[in-house]
Structure prediction request, 392 residues.
Amino acid sequence: MKPREIVPDVLYVGAPDFDRRLFDSLIPLPDGTSYNSYLIRGRDKTALIDAVEPAKLHVLEAYLADVPKIDYLISNHTEQDHSGGIPWILGRYPGIELLSSQPAKPMLADHLGLDPARIRTVSDGERLDLGGKTLRFIYTPWVHWPETMSTYLEEDQILFSCDWFGSHIAQTGLFVDGVGCIMAEAKRYYAEIMMPFRKIIQKNLDKIKDLEIRLIAPSHGPIHRDPRSIIEAYRDWADDKPHNTVVIPWVSMHGSTALMVDRLVTALVERGVEVFPFNMASADIGQLAMALVDAATIVVAAPTVHVGPHPVIFNAVILANALRPKVRFASIVGSYGWAGMMVETIKSAMPNLKVELLPPVISKGLPKPADFEKIDALAEAIVGKHKELGLL
Ligand code: FEO
Prediction:
């Protein structure tokens, strides 16, 4: 296939991956993904940005079959879904110069076994003139690795952002088709890998706020023709203020915990709080991560197995602890047969959450009227806390 034009002399040479269903052997990909690479032709020089996932290298090879010379290979990000094709590119174009951020150089050597002597580092803000196409390198660390940079094409006002602003979508069209659809996918992607770094993302957003951006061309998913929408969405997701929402990851064995969760959901909804319950026996952890982006409160609900929490609930607890969402309040709901250490065990498994713990509600066997009253009191406490934050 011939390289596909985005704007004159800026060409798409990436690869959709319709069949991939899991990333990092962890993250569900309901809509596949893509590994985007871009070819930029100046009057004098040609540059390639990123080098696709090794499993799709044949797509890039086909795109480049009639491209006899590339002067620069720009590695915005070391993770192998964008750097895996670099060794092949270096072999195909022996005179090519590999450019990366300074922190990326040792990482490229470590992860790909490259000779560091083949890598020239560029500094933050440095420009590269291709002849009528000027690239500016902007360090944007921790989106989501420490070495990541973005590349800005000044004349065409295109930001090649790598992972941030991206989405796991496989499609043949180059551009976003429907802002509503892309926001859900982009939020899922943000939630899964960017959320732990939201403080640094705030700084990165400040860093690009004065750039004139006409297009954002990420390394996954379609190109944004409405860059302000996705930038504003990132501002909201990374912002410190949560929404008036509660996330309840739960699991139940014989129905006691499920009854308590039902009562809590009802009590919160009646009081004007939006609730996102997830039965962890079957939940999509990507959707759980998305709900955690905004939530002010998390309530973990589980029965006791032996003396500890049902092990399935740890999928949610460990994920929330790793993603460090902006939640401000937490509680624990559950049931036990004869004894248990559930509350202590769950609390100790989420040290990264800087939350105020609201009184847990644990019932012995089936919840009794007094237990449901405690659930109602928990809902009242959550509402009070949300009001204190001005969310309700
Ligand atoms: Fe798409 Fe961080 O790699």
